[in-house]
Amino acid sequence: MIQIRTVLKVLDNSGPKTARCIGILGPPKKFATVGDKIVVAAEGKVYHGIVACCKVEKKRPDGSFVRIDQNGVILVESNGKPVGNRVFGVLSDRVKQPEILSLGRVKTI
């Protein structure tokens, strides 16, 4: 779960390596989870981002748990297109859905 002032790792090659959450877009809530749009500050600039992975455990329907060791964000433009052209690291299935992030020309590694 991501809240304001959380430091996140940037998972694409757009430039900055880390970013700090400064706002959560959408209906008012305290935490953002995987797939939510947030506003981040990195290297003195303000970007929009989509939360790609969280440290908190997530339970799958088969009973197993998934935990990732970092909080990650993908920087996007206001229309939803990614700023970088490559995405590194682990992406959740929810982020890969077309209505959340359009990965048309983006190469995932």
TrEMBL record:
<dbReference type="InterPro" id="IPR036853">
    <property type="entry name" value="Ribosomal_uL14_sf"/>
</dbReference>
<dbReference type="InterPro" id="IPR000218">
    <property type="entry name" value="Ribosomal_uL14"/>
</dbReference>
<dbReference type="GO" id="GO:0003735">
    <property type="term" value="F:structural constituent of ribosome"/>
</dbReference>
<protein>
    <recommendedName>
        <fullName>50S ribosomal protein L14</fullName>
    </recommendedName>
</protein>
<dbReference type="Pfam" id="PF00238">
    <property type="entry name" value="Ribosomal_L14"/>
</dbReference>
<comment type="similarity">
    <text>Belongs to the universal ribosomal protein uL14 family.</text>
</comment>
<dbReference type="GO" id="GO:0070180">
    <property type="term" value="F:large ribosomal subunit rRNA binding"/>
</dbReference>
<dbReference type="GO" id="GO:0022625">
    <property type="term" value="C:cytosolic large ribosomal subunit"/>
</dbReference>
<keyword id="KW-0689">Ribosomal protein</keyword>
<keyword id="KW-0687">Ribonucleoprotein</keyword>
<dbReference type="GO" id="GO:0006412">
    <property type="term" value="P:translation"/>
</dbReference>
